[in-house]
Design a protein that fits this description.
By secondary structure, this protein is α+β, with helices and mostly antiparallel strands. It folds into two domains: 39 residues; 155 residues, Glucose Permease (Domain IIA), CATH 2.70.70. Helix content is 17%, strand content 35%. The two termini are 20 Å apart.
């Protein structure tokens, strides 16, 4: 029987929402209330729909994570758009597997750590805002690259990439932090992408077109 763990304590809320969404939600709710007081029915209904969608967008459901030390889990909810082996690039200089996950505005946007280890470095790069499902988004868009040293000294990299609508990347970890597989570490607002770079001794379990969930879907397994 498979075993699972809670990387974060379960929320006490029936509909947990990421704290980063509070200003957007409160702002939209204030506008909705103001329009209602002015008696603008159509505008009030539209603003209410926007408020409810923002609540939906910033939802932050609890997740249980496979209790397998060899598992590398997805850092994001969404659709796998790239699975390839590359010779390396500026983020990962060695031959590796690259997996890209596109998050639409309907996906949960809270990001989770792919595997346990220590954060070695974080590099933020300003850039453009092409649609995140395009290949050029990986190199051209604003992004935040996080390098992690896993057990046995293995190195991985996962990159938060802003999309066409996204204008804010949130990262809640720092260099030298010790992190756990499936732990929340950040969020990207309103449509985005996550790239994951894994060494060749990881057996990839996903392919293009697969739908994955952050923390629960296994992207690959370390060779024993």
């Amino acid at each position: 029987m498979s075993r699972f763990i809670w990387p974060n304590a379960p929320s006490q809320s029936g509909f947990p929402v990421a704290k980063a969404g509070y200003p957007f939600i409160f702002g939209a709710a204030f506008i909705t209330g103001t329009l209602a007081l002015l008696g603008l029915s159509a505008a009030t209904l539209l603003a209410l729909a926007v408020t409810l969608f923002i609540c939906f967008f910033f939802r932050d459901p609890d997740r249980v994570v496979p209790d397998r030390p060899t598992a590398v889990v997805s850092p994001a909810d969404g659709k796998v758009v790239v699975v390839e082996s590359i010779d390396g690039d500026e983020r990962y200089p060695e031959k590796c597997h690259k997996i890209s996950i596109f998050m639409s505005i309907f996906n949960v946007h809270v990001n989770r750590v792919p595997c346990s280890g220590t954060i070695k470095s974080i590099h933020y790069h300003p850039g453009k805002f092409f649609s995140a499902n395009l290949d050029k988004a990986s190199s051209s868009n604003e992004h935040n690259a996080i390098h992690l040293e896993a057990e046995k000294g293995h190195a991985i990299c996962f990159v938060q990439i802003a999309g066409l609508v996204a204008r804010r990347i949130i990262c809640g970890v720092a260099e030298n932090d010790t992190v756990m597989r499936g732990q929340r570490f950040g969020l990207i607002c309103f449509g985005s992408r996550l790239d994951v770079y894994l060494p060749l001794n990881v057996r990839v379990n996903v392919r293009v077109g697969d739908r994955v969930q952050a923390g629960t879907s296994v992207l690959g397994e370390w060779d024993e």
